[in-house]
Sequence to fold (402 residues):
Amino acid sequence: MRNFALLSSLVALSLTAAEPGFLHRQGAQIVDAAGHPVTLRGTNLGNWLVPEGYMFLFENGPESVREIDAFFRDIAGPDQTDRFWREWRDRYITEHDIAALAHMGMNLIRLPMHHALLAEGGEGWRHLDDTIAWARKHGLWVILDLHAAPAGQTGTNIDDSWGYPWLFESEKAQAGTVALWKRIAARYHNEPAVLGYDLLNEPIPPFNGLPRLNPKLEPLYRRIVAAIREVDTRHIVILEGPQWASTFAPFSPPFDDNVMYSFHKYWTAPTREVIRPYLDFRAKYNVPIYMGESGENTDDWIAKFAHVLDEEKIPWTFWPYKKMEKTSAIVTFRKPQHWDAIVEYSRKLGSVGTAEKKGAQRPTPEQAQAALDDLLEQIRFDHGHVNSGYVRALGMTPPPQP
Fold:
């Protein structure tokens, strides 16, 4: 992709930016060590450590991490699937990606995490360490986002759970979540490139009567924050509201001095009116608010909403950094060979091992392996294409065109 080749050259020639310093809350603003307000703009590294089916173009097929993993094991075998995921995590995000984001003018990345990769000795720690080091080198801050908590905080594919937010019913899972955040905070308590800790992504869906769980959210947040503060008093804690980060209504007055509240906003009008409740919450409690996810829309919509957020001085990270085939991201990469056949098979699969009964054409092991190998090539930094219109819609600077 020619514009990515140019960007690669610019990144290679760029000087190391000044390392970011600790940020903290001061009233309703995020400020640096000298008390100066900081404008924060960036993106989410979605689909990397927490893959999602729709970003593999799977529709009516595997959606969650475990479902995608089972599907790949079905078509390519367990050994090749294990190898694929190791290489996927090594290739999907590299220092080149972080340097490119800095070159475009961004200074913030939100990093979704899966609890299973952060078990003792888990490979997720290496990826967190590397990303934070790259961000520090290139002058960005990192928000660590627990996208998939033990037992699941959403009960949908996005947290790799079992159809219900069991986190709020399981003391074991809650204790595991508290302990995990304490380990994260202990590891990074002296790291200024980490802006803060986004404790739970999009907790408690709005359907099936699940808002009845809302009263359990803030008590869990209090437990997590208390554990974090035992080992880390400097980093910001970020609290998302329930119903997929859509409401702050269940929250009581802030219980921590260094806190920021996060909302997500998809598929609404890109106007100030749709964020009015969050602005009112900010004014009422004199605390910062942050738009953690939005996007999946046209360049025009993105530009209008980003403008509203900038006018209101709301930090933001649009979703996601890159996607297969779609232009609603900073970077697009091509779908691999045989992918249409694999998508068709996934659509008819239902549950693993039943697709042939539905008349689906099963890909051969050789086709599946070739597709997964090609996918590992397509996700490489130098094989992507920067969507200049999307980047400009965010108010950033795309690489020059050849």
Q: What stands out?
A: The radius of gyration is 21 Å.
